[in-house]
Write a structure and sequence with these properties.
The structure holds two protein chains of two kinds. Chain A is mainly alpha-helical. Chain A contains eight helices and no strands. The chains are: A mainly alpha, B alpha+beta.
């Protein structure tokens, strides 16, 4: 599989993740909704750091900014950081069992949410509700099945 | 590309720089983009294009609920349609009865104010807009509507529903616009208590239906059940539109400020349609002519502009700025009212620096005078004598 084919596949999964992210849900479900796009970027950064990686994180972040960000570049920076960590440590993360992977994903999501939280505050759009951290937990819980689905898409289309 | 074979899963060495280098590059790029968007406001048209590009995706996401609604509507029974028709007919009759005296009242009001003819209604034109059902950002109160620049929508335009104020537009794309609701904590709307004429500011409560009045002294005359209407200051909303109803008032002896909460009148959560309203320029009750540029701090009526921009750092561009009790002393003190300008004519003094001329006047006069009566914001803009 070439990098080009890989990129098409990644773009498709990112699009699906984006749609899942902006799907309207009632508020109580919305705060529980995992950050699907972040999980997708994490998955591709860990498993194919060459096709995924920091550029993918930046682009997906910019996409999120267009839909949800108060400032352009906010999610782009946060996702670049997360993707960078994932790419750097991808061999170490890949070899871990699922449960430990979930914990690492939890840490990555907390880093992501902290960056977004900080930029929210600096740019004057603060959301201080503690509910905003909730999606990190659900994201970590959802990680094993999400990774399985993504790896299925990777292997299936090859 | 093909020469690399299974390059995708190879460990990355050598191509496109090290991850650290690329990360630095992208991080700097993101920070630059943020700076340009936030401080320099350079990216307005980039955002415009991006919003246009995002619109198809938003429509696709919106389509399942839309299709569901369409199916439900097309399978409605004859009885339910008939019942709805009957209800609407009755409501129309009620409304007509209520508005029967409107013409006469408007005329009488015009005479009382010394205007030669009754004023036309302040709302000039309105356009229904459909809410696109999409999660804009969790824990913020934002909406997306299906009208944009191509329909003449501008930034900072008032959005209403049939019961009250909903919010104002923030980012306007070619076919869609983002609306910040009055219940968003980042939004503040200048209001007046209908019963007493007391003016203050209602800040969004953040939970989707409530507002807070954080700037009222503990001895302010306000009680639960009071109706809050827009005061016409702030340059976005015209005067006299219902906003919210006060639900609770807490007064504590040790606190200098009362804690007041109010419930928004508009049914934001159950609406599928909202109204975009254009207001007649130059109408005494209309927001200022410079209403479209909410980025800079300008107050409602040209003659009532504040002395200077409030020192308070207001980071959010859509925020209606806070100059609640700042009537124009010069306009009120004029012994013989100058002939009022024709309502159709735009206020010719909108660009003149009226505030500077009034700058030396001490604001103490307002502090002594009781809260000005309801008609103050409706004074026609005048040049200083």
């Amino acid at each position: 599989m070439t990098v080009g084919q890989m990129r098409v596949r990644i773009a498709l999964t990112a699009l699906v993740a984006l749609i899942l992210t902006v799907l309207p849900l009632p508020t109580w479900l919305d705060v529980l909704r995992p950050a699907f796009l972040v999980l997708t970027v994490l998955y591709w950064s860990i498993n194919t750091p060459r096709a995924g990686g920091i550029g993918l994180g930046f682009l997906c972040g910019l996409l999120l900014d267009v839909f949800q960000g108060p400032v352009l570049g906010e999610h782009a920076l946060a996702l670049s950081i997360v993707a960078y960590i994932a790419v750097r440590e991808h061999q170490r993360i890949r070899s871990k069992p699922a449960f430990q992977q979930s914990l690492l994903v939890l840490a990555a999501l907390v880093v992501y949410e902290f960056v977004v939280f900080a930029i929210d505050g600096w740019t004057g759009h603060p959301v201080t509700s503690p509910l905003r951290w909730l999606h990190c937990l659900t994201g970590a819980i959802v990680w094993p099945p999400a990774a399985a689905i993504l790896s299925y898409s990777e292997g299936r289309l090859a | 590309m093909t020469a690399f074979g299974t390059a995708a899963s190879r460990p990355l060495q050598g191509r496109g720089g090290s991850p650290g280098f690329r990360f630095t590059l992208y991080a700097v790029l993101a920070v630059v983009v943020m700076y340009l968007d936030q401080r320099a406001r350079y990216l307005e048209h980039v955002r415009f294009v991006l919003q246009a590009a995002a619109y198809p995706v938003q429509l696709v996401v919106n389509s399942p609920p839309g299709a569901w609604r369409w199916i439900r509507e097309s399978f409605q029974t004859r009885e339910s349609l008939r019942a709805e028709n009957e209800r609407l007919r009755q409501r129309q009759r009620d409304l007509e009865l209520m508005s029967m005296r409107y013409e006469a009242l408007a005329h009488e009001n015009g005479e009382l104010r010394g205007l030669r003819e009754a004023l036309p209604p302040v709302a000039d034109r309105w356009l229904p807009a459909e809410i696109i059902n999409i999660q804009l950002s969790s824990l913020r109160q934002r909406l997306l509507i299906n009208r944009g620049v191509s329909n003449g929508v501008f930034k900072g335009q008032a959005v209403l529903d049939d019961r009250g104020l909903i919010g104002q537009t923030t980012h306007v794309g070619p076919w869609s616009a983002e609306v910040i609701l009055i219940t968003d904590p980042e939004h503040a709307v200048p209001v007046r208590v209908d019963r007493t004429g007391l003016r203050t500011i209602a800040v969004g409560g953040g939970d989707g239906s409530s507002l807070a009045l954080p700037y009222l002294p503990a001895n302010a005359d306000i009680r639960s059940g009071d109706l809050l209407v827009t005061s016409g200051l702030g340059g976005v909303f015209p005067e006299g539109y219902p906003v919210a109803r006060v639900t609770e008032v807490h007064r504590e002896a040790v606190q200098p400020l009362a804690q007041v909460r109010a419930l928004a009148l508009s049914h934001i959560n159950s609406d599928t349609e909202v109204m975009l309203v254009w207001f007649r320029q130059g109408h005494p009750a209309s927001p200022a002519a410079s209403a479209s540029s909410t980025a800079e701090v300008k107050s409602g009526n040209a003659a009532m502009q504040p002395l200077a921009a409030p020192a308070r750092a207001s980071p959010a561009p859509p925020r209606a700025e806070e100059t609640p009790v700042r009537a124009a002393p010069a306009a009120r003190r004029a012994p013989t009212p100058a002939p009022a300008p024709s309502p159709a004519a735009p206020p010719d003094d909108s660009s003149t620096p009226a505030p500077q001329a009034e700058a030396p006047q001490p604001p103490a006069t307002q502090a002594q005078s009781p809260p000005p009566p309801a008609d103050t914001p409706a004074e026609p803009p005048r040049l200083q004598p």
